Amino acid sequence: MGAINQFYDGKLECGILEPDTKRAHNLECKIIKPENHLIWIKMPGGNEFKEEYRGTSFFNIREIDVIECLCQQFESTWSSKVANGEPKKQIAVITFYGAQLTKIDERLQSELFPSLQITTGTVDRFQGMERPVVIVSMVRNNSRGDVGFAKKPERVNVAFSRAQELLVIVGCHSLFTQQPEKIGSMYSNVSNIVRLHGGFVDVSRLFC
């Protein structure tokens, strides 16, 4: 709620008593603790992590590597619960770009994650839907300072408001927070909430 309250003039209030208990994700793993509900996995700005483009769309292979690794950790955590009769964990992976979505679908084959029910889509197509866990792939990572579609507040609001228990942002923190004027302020507000709740994760921690 803190991540999107700026889009509602700070008027959102939590209507759930004991939300940490009732909205527990139960996905504790290498980088995520029970008290984490908002995570930003920080991608560096070096050439190895840069975006690529296909036609008029963009993709980012290193972000897909991160998402695949994260889903593998979720699978390891949740498999014992499914074995004990609990339903599959519902996870959405959404992005601003069709080229990224195509490559995410290629990587996240359902047979590789039998304990997860993974839904993928673009941010625009996911409007109106929610999932317990949402991973947002930001894609853009360049030296030009261009964040593309992710500069529109209404799209960012949709992207960051789909999660019921856990929101994971995967993207280049410096690129988005150093944007000029309102765009930079929008992402800095999100960044401040992430920092307040100890939700920053350096990408190197995921693979070490």
CATH architecture: 3-Layer(aba) Sandwich
CATH topology: Rossmann fold
Query: What fraction, in percent, of the residue positions are helical?
Result: 25-40%
Alpha plus pi helix count: 7
Enumerate the strands of the largest sheet in spatial order, edge to edge or round the barrel. Answer: 5-4-6-7-1-8
- How many domains? The number is 1
Kindly state the number of beta strands: 8
Relevant CATH superfamily: P-loop containing nucleotide triphosphate hydrolases
- The low-confidence parts are none
Head-to-tail CA distance between termini: 31 Å
Order of helices and strands: HEEEHEHEEHEHHEH
Secondary-structure blueprint:
Elements: H1 19-22, E1 38-42, E2 52-54, E3 57-59, H2 61-83, E4 89-95, H3 98-107, E5 116-122, E6 131-137, H4 153-160, E7 163-171, H5 173-177, H6 181-196, E8 200-202, H7 204-207
Parallel strand pairs: 1-7, 1-8, 4-5, 4-6, 6-7
Antiparallel strand pairs: 2-3
Description of the structure:
- This protein is an alpha/beta fold.
- The longest helix is centred in the middle third of the chain and has 23 residues.
- Strand 2 and strand 3 form a beta hairpin.
- The strands form two sheets. A six-stranded parallel sheet has the order 5-4-6-7-1-8. Strands 2-3 form a two-stranded antiparallel ribbon.
- It is 34% helix and 21% strand.
- 36% of the residues are buried.
- The chain is globular, with a radius of gyration of 16 Å.
- It has a single domain, classed as P-loop containing nucleotide triphosphate hydrolases (Rossmann fold).
- The two termini are 31 Å apart.
- The chain has seven helices and eight strands.
